[in-house]
Amino acid sequence: MSVFIELVFEYPGCAGSACRSRKRGDDEPAAPSISNDGADQAEKLEQLRRKMASIPARSDGTEPATPSVMLKPVGAREPTPIVATAQSTLRMLPVPTPIGNLLPRGGLARGTVVSVDGAASVLIGLLATVTAAGGHVAVIGMPGLGLIAFHEQGGDLAKVALVPQPKDAAIDCAAILLEGFDVVVLGLAGGAVTPSRGRAVAARARSKGSLLIVTEGQWDGPDLRISSRVAGYTGLTAGRGRVTGIQLDVAAGGKGFQQRTGCMEICDDTGQLCWATVDDITLAATPPLRAAQ
Questions:
Q1: How do the domains of the chain map onto residue ranges?
Q2: Per DSSP, what are the bridge partners of residue 211?
Q3: Mean pLDDT throughout 272-291?
Q4: Residue among 202, 211, 253 at smallest CA distance from 93
Q5: Per-residue pLDDT tens for 63-86?
């Protein structure tokens, strides 16, 4: 007995016996071949299937998504990608060049907490450099901030907001201002911030991409500490002269790098104060400070 099975495949633009494939017994004649138009349609359909199969599946949250930024190491033989972390791509805020030479990335990273203690000229220089570059600064709890010195170092007073007397709301005020300012300076007036409140404000600075500078008080675990002291003056001779510059010993240390120190000078350059690194020869020629008689 012969077995007769008829399979019908329909393609767009194809009808009738030309689109039918039959499986017959030995005594049945061969089925007519599919027309060329049908073969072309089948080939296109197969190509579309291959393209669809090559598209990666949508992530359902069970596996980490592929990072959008991939960096290839120079001279690497194997194509092993290096994922650019958030820490390596943080935008930096400018600082005076001599201070930047002490920092790993040459500036202050947004989203971090920096403790600044010592000579007020260092803090003023940091703020003046940021505003000169177009940044906006808020200063909380520092009514005695030297605005004239700030202007003489090239700072833009139009980009500074002052909250001189925040009373008991200094930390809350800082947390709010971090949302809209590039740099927020928090003067603690000799006080201390508890670790729990400090972590909350640091998290706010990190999420908003702003820099928090704390001074005149205790803050546990800042990302960077900058301390300074006055080392000498220039322009003065024995009992006479005019101060043309001030020399500072500055030290910077923080998380991930050891403390670095340097000597620098703020000097008067035709009415505009500028920062410069003091070399060993100039430092040796500067007389040490002595108490006034």
A1: 14-50, 92-285
A2: 183
A3: 68
A4: 211
A5: 333 333 444 444 544 433 333 344
C-alpha distances in Å from residue 5, one per residue of 22, 23, 32, 245: 6, 5, 15, 104
In DSSP terms, 117 is beta-bridged to 227
**Distance from C-alpha of 7 to C-alpha of 96, rounded to nearest angstrom:** 83
Question: Which amino acid belongs to residue 144?
Answer: G
Question: Is 3.40.50.1100 the CATH classification of the domain at 92-285?
Answer: no
> H helices then E strands: how many in the chain?
7, 15
| Residues 6+ away with beta carbon under 8 Å from 237 | none
Residues 6+ apart with CB under 8 A from 251: 102, 226, 227, 228, 259, 260, 261
**CB count in 10 Å sphere of residue 168:** 6
Which amino acid, 203?
A: A
Contact status, residue 215 vs residue 116, Cβ threshold 8 Å: yes
| pTM of the shown model | 0.66
**Tokens 């400018």 label which residue?**
94
